[in-house]
């Protein structure tokens, strides 16, 4: 997410990575901070470049039979606040506007009937009283708004999945390697605000994949997707893709009780989107280009899906319907990095310094206004 006049999460993360490198020189453990600790991974194969200047902050993408659908995150430019349809060469062939201004569109999904679901769920400041889903029916001229509200407190989220019945599942962004799952308690209705319920939590596998945000980029979820046959889902961070089998159609059970196969997505500039190819054999990703060198174009990258055994991970919270006592979403982002002792050792000082730097940068920005 990018918000004018504020220090965004991405900028905080980049500042944190720089501070981490400085602290590493002062004797911090090398496991989380030095290039030697970065995991190796094969770079994705380029598919096509997006050359339309309206798509510079791509936050969501889905593959279709004849191309792709993409959205930006909370763009200041009105021309970028669209649902963009692209052909197989990444050329925009259609753009659908919103009837009112969305807050922060972060992910996409396509329902069984071809409806495009747009997740307006970003909340970098944790201040929204409601989040939203926009639904664009096949052939419609504009999407329809459906509001939702969390049962506990605001959360920043950037990932959306649909279960076998097209029920939306919101995955929070997290920050400490644990993310939380929320689902509507009733069918979504235009003009109404539907309560969400906490349905589980996921502890992400630990990796050391190289990415621009160091260890911070490995502990957040920035996108999600379902395979065309519905038998797999994937969550992505800035560094990796975590793929889960869904043999019985129960997406929540798969995420909360399953183990992940990990595909490294090394050194993507700011990867916030993931989708399956239409044949289900590949993962496709794309990064933002807004903060990249002039002339950089968003490029869709292809990674083969992982066929090997699932990566063992620490136990995750089970589905709320089975073990509700294991779901404690109020703990999100307040536990710091306590779930990973190696990050505690390396990151506690970094995070303190990062907060100070954020305050200084924000004060300097305010002073210049």
Written account of the structure:
With 369 residues, the protein is of the alpha+beta class. The protein contains 3 helices and 20 strands. Helix content is 14%, strand content 32%.
**Approximate helicity band:** 10-25%
Order of helices and strands: HEEEEEEEEEEEEEEEEHEEEEH
Structural class: alpha+beta
- Terminal Cα separation, in Å? 22 Å
* Radius of gyration, in angstroms, nearest whole number: 19 Å
Poorly predicted parts? 2-38, 312-350, 363-369
Strand content: 25-35%
Number of E-state strands = 20
Counted by DSSP, the helix tally is 3
Q: Mean pLDDT, as a whole number? A: 80
Please describe the biggest sheet, giving its number of strands, its sense, and whether it closes into a barrel. Answer: 8 strands, mixed
The outline comes out as globular
Strand order of the largest sheet: 6-7-8-9-13-12-11-10
Architecture blueprint of SSEs:
Elements: H1 9-25, E1 45-49, E2 58-64, E3 67-72, E4 82-86, E5 92-97, E6 105-110, E7 116-120, E8 131-136, E9 144-149, E10 157-162, E11 168-172, E12 178-184, E13 193-203, E14 223-226, E15 232-236, E16 240-245, H2 251-257, E17 261-264, E18 271-276, E19 282-287, E20 299-304, H3 341-368
Parallel strand pairs: 9-13
Antiparallel strand pairs: 1-20, 2-3, 3-4, 4-5, 6-7, 7-8, 8-9, 10-11, 11-12, 12-13, 14-15, 15-16, 16-17, 18-19, 19-20
Quick tags:
alpha+beta, 369 residues, disordered N terminus, globular
Outline:
With 369 residues, the protein is of the alpha+beta class.
